[in-house]
Specification:
Layout (H helix, E strand, L loop, with lengths): L2 E9 L17 H13 L6 E2 L8 E11 L5 H11 L4 E9 L11 E9 L13 E2 L6 H7 L5 E4 L13 E12 L2 E8 L6 H13 L8 H7 L14 E7 L1
Parallel strand pairs: 3-10, 5-6
Antiparallel strand pairs: 1-3, 1-4, 2-3, 5-9, 5-10, 7-8, 8-9
Helix pairs in contact: 3-4
């Protein structure tokens, strides 16, 4: 009998080459999970992730599923995995799912957060999880950008994904909160293209720096050209916060 397990994985992506398995010596989240599961199950286990996060990106809610030929109590499996994984990867939840569940294709939406610190000096306790910009930003102008990204749109100008891939994506919610010298962007949608969130945030940062204006964004969408948009914000500020099922 084969059992389908779903796990929620938290990880600090700083020392990993992203989610997707790559040949050694590169370390990835998927690769580390497969390594640990092979020790437990005594056979190769394919792990399907809800998202393929890039190198340096963090997770506070990525979901994954896999099938085992042996049945283990979810809590016992969670403990066994955590005992075999490095401390910067933690299994926070584990449960048995219906055999039809697929972490990628069953997902209804994803929520990402991007954090920026714009004070002069950033604490070492947060520097791994924030993009540090040590100069003033025009927060009011940055906030004006958000409505332009909400809705179903062609995000060709904000991705470096496969040219043949469908570029239409829908953003359902996009917020910007400022607390002290920290900015937190929260962006929700059904699915995202490669580098899409980081390129959106990078473009908004360029507005904050005065290199672009909020009113430039419709023309950037219309151009369908990555070169027209702003910089790509660094990976370390990005965290996959939640996957919705």
């Amino acid at each position: 009998m084969v059992t389908n397990y779903k796990i929620i994985v938290h990880y600090d992506g700083a020392r990993f080459s992203g989610w997707q398995f790559q040949a050694p010596p590169l370390k990835t989240i998927q690769g580390e999970l497969m390594r640990a599961l092979q020790i437990i199950a005594k056979h190769r286990v394919i792990v399907t992730g809800s998202s393929r996060t890039d190198a340096g990106v963090h997770s506070a809610g990525l979901a994954a599923n896999f099938h085992l030929k042996i049945k283990i109590a979810p809590e016992s499996l969670k403990k066994a995995l955590n005992s075999l994984l490095a401390e910067d990867i933690r299994i926070m939840e584990c449960e048995v799912m219906d055999k039809s569940f697929n972490a990628r294709f069953s997902a209804k939406g994803k929520v990402y957060i991007y954090r920026i610190y714009f004070g002069q000096t950033v604490s070492p306790f947060i520097c791994r999880y924030m993009h540090h910009i040590p100069y003033p930003l025009n927060l009011r102008q940055m906030r004006k950008c958000l409505p332009y990204f909400i809705g179903e749109k062609d995000f060709s100008s904000f991705t470096s994904d496969d040219p043949d891939k469908e570029r239409m994506r829908g953003i359902s919610e996009f917020t910007m909160k400022v607390r002290g010298e920290e900015i937190t962007f929260t962006i929700s949608g059904k699915s995202f293209l490669r580098y899409m969130v980081r390129n959106i945030i990078g473009t908004i940062i360029d507005v904050g720096r005065g290199k672009l204006k909020p009113g430039d964004i419709p023309a950037i969408f219309e151009a369908r050209d990555r070169k027209k948009a702003g910089q790509s914000a660094p990976a370390k500020g990005l965290t996959l916060a939640k996957v919705i099922y």
